[in-house]
Amino acid sequence: QVTIHLPANAVDEAYTLRLTVVNDAIIRVEATPEEQIPNKRKSLVVVNREGPYTADTEENEQTLTLSTARLTVTVDKRDGQMTFLDRTTGKVLLKEAEGSKTFTRYVSPQTMLPDNYVPSSPDEINWGKKDSVNHLSLDDRSGYSWHLLFESDDNEAFYGLGQHQSEEMNYKGRNEELFQYNTKVAVPFVVSTKNYGILWDSYSYGRWGNPHEYLQLHRLFTLYDKNGRKGTLSGTYTEHTGKIVERNEDSIYYEHAGVVGNLPQHIRLGQSNVVYEGEIEAPETANYHFILYYSGYVRVMMGGREVVAQRWRTAWNPNAFKFEVNLRRGQRTPLRIEWQPDGGVAYCGLRVAPLQTEEEQRRVSIWTEMDKEMDYYFIAGENYDEVIKGYRFLTGKAQVMPRWAMGFWQSREKYNSQKEVEQTLAEFRKRQIPIDNIVQDWLYWEQDKWGSFVFDKKRFPNPKGMVDFIHDNNARLLISHWPKYYVTTDNYKALDAKGWMYQQAIRDSIRDWVGPGYLGSFYDAYSAGARKMFWQQMHDHLFTLGVDAWWMDASEPNVRDCTPMAYRKLLCGPTALGTSDEYFNAYSVVNADAIYTGQRSVDNNKRVFLLTRSGFAGEQRYSTATWSGDIGTRWEDMRAQITAGLNFSMAGIPFWGMDQGGFCVENRYVEAQKIYQKMGYENEDLKEWRELNARWNQFGCFVPLYRTHGQWP
Questions:
Q1: Sorting pLDDT into bands at 50, 70 and 90, what band is 49?
Q2: What is the C-alpha to C-alpha distance for residues 493 and 440, in angstroms, rounded to an integer?
Q3: Residue 630 designated active-site
Q4: HEC sequence for 84-113
Q5: Summary mean pLDDT of the chain
Q6: d(CA 141, CA 371)
Q7: Are strands 319-327 and 144-151 parallel, antiparallel or unpaired?
Q8: What phi, psi does 234 have (nearest 5°)?
Q9: Which has fewest Cβ within 10 Å: 278, 348, 490, 692?
Q10: How many CB atoms lie within 10 A of CB 353?
Q11: Catalytic residue among 548, 553, 582, 637
Q12: For residue 8, with 0-12 CB atoms within 10 Å meaning exposed, 13-18 middle and 19 or more buried, which class applies?
């Protein structure tokens, strides 16, 4: 281990640099603008930080060189710039760019919601009020946003980063926001076609590629409405009744519950067609990176051509899609967004990344919002397998899954009774269709007892008998389980008495979507004591029945859908380890620890299987698989799962799956089945539905976990 103090060139640059030889193919790099590396927290990701490895060291006035059996690492002592080389061939594998390690002291948000916040429903009126913001004082938000830059060859490609939904495979030259959300999983690891990987040990919100936040359109472009007037776009909202609302739009930013109140409130959006149109004038000739956020049906045309073909997503779970367009300086380019909202609450947004030069876009850029120090690992290998082997040396070996987990899983949203579960399994056996697992999704408890872990006796009169029936028919049971509790349950009260429940949702009276809406929150999985109690509750109510495996839903944690990012962090903190700014992305891995460690503590001869909607680096050591969340049921969604699943696996985590056939369903498919049931007529929509499911299940044969799932038909 070597520590270097660099010249104090600038306040935002690294001053102290520490290199640790983990083994002959892995080097750890730590940096800070302060005089010493901080006492590092216990890593939630890395379990093997340092080995008994030594390195040859050479030093002169300008350069420090470390050499292992496989690597040579040089450090420019003037600015800390590092180069990683293959020791045998002398070939450069990776080189930090000039100004590669920069820091900005993190400043906590002063308010949780934007200035133009308008509540979209009465129960949101208290969000972000001053009495909520005052609780920020309980958090230690001391730390830095840091930015790491590397040079990259034009022919180099990068894979990994977790699971994202924009149909992108190679992340070279791309931008990706790194946070956890339903259908989106962030993993801070990439592997290069030059046979190395980078793992950064950070748990906060981050960005790959452009380090700056996407901008609303007027922040970068000059806007013109449909009549050529400068300053805004034109918005036309046409209700199916013929009612029309026209207004100027200085941006298209209706992306979360904090701003959708700015949409027209005196028109029924769910029964309307919306057109945003006009022209945008670019400040420079360049390739511009856009992000589209949407629910309902949306289509985007720019410069007279379709840049986003029609896409759809359900209203309660919007999606994001990225695209690029080359624009010329000073040229007014026509823009048209056709949007058909679908549901009572509607979301739509189009933003653009701040402009970068082509050279900047080609570089490897990693930015993280809040951390105590910069901490990353360089992992070399002869091929991808060796790089992944190095990743798992650091983060833990992948457990051997139970053999039955590799079979066919039958899953629905949802079986509403014991009778449904047993009859479904019996029908598979009657038809001699092989099945290894059947899944009990959510709401098997009484409606107002989320978190009780107790079956509703009216619908599930004999849970132990149901589990025995499943086992007697040579199958296993996976059961849906959330880290969520209603305040009225005994389990909530037990955790809350120890200070192990997140309180912001309770203070702000955030109610969920079930029945009349119930008050609840999530437990703090970052607390070791809370993890033990969480497992004990699972054990006493479910494991003793013979439940075989666990389906951990909403493990981002998703306390509330479609909220502003800053408020999301407030809802899931402070954690037992520190601020939720710092620990924003790692909840699923500590939650997996609770279940894996808990089950192994009571039955060390039964393999653990956990399916989780979120994921993070290191989860493979807890016998955990991830599925891609509540995706849509369309061809573009099936296509997106191919790149999402491949990149997730190349982020070092081997077990991944999806809702085969998709989850959220367009009304046209539902209506098509109603017509068929009533008239026996199979229209084009139903034919498409059948083919989509057939093709999706063919694809499903080639992913690690084969699980069919959906809402309806």
A1: confident
A2: 26
A3: yes
A4: EEECCCCCEEEEEEEEEEEEEECCCCCCCC
A5: 93
A6: 9
A7: unpaired
A8: -100, 135
A9: 490
A10: 21
A11: 553
A12: exposed
pTM: 0.95
**C-beta of residue 31 within 8 angstroms of C-beta of residue 80:** yes
Residue 506, Cβ neighbours under 10 Å: how many?
Answer: 15
Both tokens of 37, joined, read: 């590396």
CB-neighbour burial class of residue 517 (10 A; exposed 0-12, middle 13-18, buried 19+): exposed
What are the residues whose beta carbons fall under 8 Å from the beta carbon of 42, sequence distance 6 or more?
none
Angle between helices 684-700 and 635-650 (to 10 degrees): 10
Q: What is the pLDDT of residues 527-577, one digit of tens each?
A: 999 999 999 999 999 999 999 999 999 999 999 999 999 999 999 999 999
- Tokens read off for 615: 């994921």
CA-to-CA distance for 196 and 386, rounded, in angstroms?
9
Contact present, 215 and 351 (Cβ < 8 Å): yes
Rounded CA gap, 310 and 670, in Å? 19
How far apart CA 190 and CA 168 sit, in angstroms, is 14
**Amino acid found at 465:** G
What is the spatial distance between Cα 106 and Cα 102, in angstroms, rounded to a whole number?
Answer: 13
Look up residue 5 and give its amino acid: H
Any residues with CB less than 8 A from the CB of 562 and at least 6 apart, and which? 256, 257, 316, 318, 345, 347
Which among 201, 508, 630, 666 is annotated as catalytic?
630
Q: Which listed residue (548, 556, 581, 582) is catalytic? A: 556
Q: CA–CA separation, 541 vs 454, rounded Å? A: 6
d(CA 472, CA 475): 7
Residue 77: which residues within 8 A CB-CB, separation 6 or more?
4, 6, 61, 62, 63, 64
The DSSP secondary structure of 612-651, one letter per residue, reads ESS--TTGGGGTEEEE--S-BSSHHHHHHHHHHHHHHHHT
Identity of the amino acid at 488 = T
The pLDDT tens digits of the residues spanning 301-333 come to 999 999 999 999 999 999 999 999 999 999 999
Closest CA to 191 of 656, 646, 589, 704: 646
Q: Which helix (H) or strand (E) holds 675?
A: helix 667-679
pLDDT tops 50 at residue 496: yes
Tell me the range of 49-58, 136-145, 353-362 where mean pLDDT is highest: 353-362
Q: Are 311 and 318 in contact (CB under 8 A)?
A: no
Kind of pairing, strands 520-522 and 484-486? antiparallel
Look at strands 408-410 and 706-708 and give their pairing.
parallel
Distance from C-alpha of 93 to C-alpha of 615, rounded to nearest angstrom = 29
Burial status of residue 107 (CB atoms within 10 A of its CB: 0-12, 13-18, 19 or more): exposed
Instruction: Tell me what percent of the residues of the chain surpass a pLDDT of 70.
Output: 95
- 600 near 543, Cβ under 8 Å? no
pLDDT tens for 432-469 read 999 999 999 999 999 999 999 999 999 999 999 999 99
Identify whether the C-beta of residue 104 lies closer than 8 Å to the C-beta of residue 12: yes
Which residue is listed with tokens 């029964």? 271
3-class DSSP assignment, residue 78? coil
Q: Are 366 and 154 in contact (CB under 8 A)?
A: no
And the tokens for 536?
């004990």
Nearest to 208 by CA among 258, 166, 259: 166
556 catalytic residue (yes or no): yes
Q: Which amino acid is at 629?
A: G
Is 659 one of the catalytic residues? no
Tell me the C-alpha distance between 664 and 313, whole Å. 8
Overall average pLDDT of the 182-195 stretch: 98
